[in-house]
Design brief:
Blueprint (H helix, E strand, L loop, with lengths): L1 E5 L2 E2 L4 H15 L3 E6 L1 E2 L1 H9 L3 E4 L10 E5 L1 H10 L5 E5 L14 E6 L4 H4 L5 E3 L23 E5 L7 H13 L3 E5 L4 H4 L6 E4 L6 H6 L2 E5 L3 H8 L4 E6 L5 E7 L10 H16 L1
Parallel strand pairs: 1-3, 1-6, 2-4, 3-5, 6-7, 7-8, 8-9, 10-11, 10-13, 11-12, 13-14
Antiparallel strand pairs: 14-15
Helix pairs in contact: 1-9
Length: about 280
């Protein structure tokens, strides 16, 4: 099957980029021809996906593509693929219920994938199907998920320092200081902020082998039910899930235990479900 995956950018190790990376990797492993279309392309994630046999091109500068399925994320990439491939069936993944991710509506979009159940409440009239984010269970698993005994907990937060996460990071710094725990803060932290962090905050650079951080931490923290939570669960670690609004204001905080059955969060299981959906919309 010729599959086009379209998203805003493909140069960071977070969010929709890792979603597309993992899906593209497994699809290519299963002998599908996969092409990624994105705006900004680069970094280790781009090199790794090309090493897995996946082609990447920028919008407006790609060769002619014969596609069987278009799978888009975010409104602007969806608008582009609808204009460029008007006769090809589309599937769109909705990664959040925040206004900037409000999906386009078009007769060629036959299914919408939601990655969390609550997204369906925001879009009750869309033809949605729930397929959770999948992670590589060969990298993230309970066997490798043990940490050495210590008196202080280490809480792991992974994410960009954007407006959605700034209040969450401030709250985590406050809470971990109050509880006398350590905060492993994995982000692209500007040097002027890095020097002002309290002693209990451990600034760490983003890296590919994020499972090493998961093995070291005791709990994870992140916004919504994101990759950090799922990867931590896979390693047997509880997760703090922050719900935020479009301005990053904190609406709720839940501390969740790892589910006993992680099958629905396995990238192989996710890919099975996505392929079933592709076959359905092609008919």
């Amino acid at each position: 099957m010729n599959i086009v995956l379209a998203l805003n950018n493909f140069n960071n190790l977070t969010g929709s980029e890792m979603y597309v990376y993992e899906l593209a990797r497994v699809l290519a492993k299963r002998n599908h021809h996969v092409i990624i279309l994105a705006n900004e392309i680069g970094g280790e994630i781009a090199k790794r996906i090309q090493d897995n046999g996946v082609d990447i091109f920028s919008f407006f500068s790609h060769p002619d593509i014969q596609a069987d399925i278009i799978h888009a994320s975010q409104p602007l990439p969806t608008a582009y693929t609808l204009s460029k491939f008007p006769s090809v069936p589309h599937v769109v993944t909705i990664h959040s219920s925040l206004p900037f991710e409000t999906p386009m509506k078009d007769p060629h979009i036959l299914k919408y994938i939601i990655v969390r159940p609550e997204i369906a409440e925001v879009y009750p009239n869309l033809n949605t199907v729930l397929i959770y984010n999948g992670v590589d269970m060969n990298r993230f698993n309970r066997v490798k998920g043990t940490s050495t005994f210590r008196t202080k907990k280490k809480i792991l937060f992974v994410g960009t320092m954007d407006h959605l996460r700034q209040h969450v990071i401030s709250d985590l710094i406050m809470r971990t200081e109050k509880d006398r725990n350590d905060l492993m803060l994995v982000s692209n932290i500007p040097s002027e902020i890095r020097t002002q962090l309290p002693n209990h905050v451990i600034p760490m650079h983003p890296q590919w082998d994020i499972e090493e951080y998961n093995k070291e931490c005791d709990e994870t923290a992140g916004i919504f039910l994101g990759r950090t939570t799922i990867e931590g669960w896979a390693c047997g670690k509880p997760g703090w899930i922050y719900e935020v609004d479009q301005n990053g204001n904190i609406l709720d905080i839940k501390v969740t235990e790892p589910p006993q059955d992680m099958t629905r969060f396995d990238i192989e299981f996710m890919t099975d479900r996505v392929l079933e959906l592709y076959e359905e919309v092609k008919q």
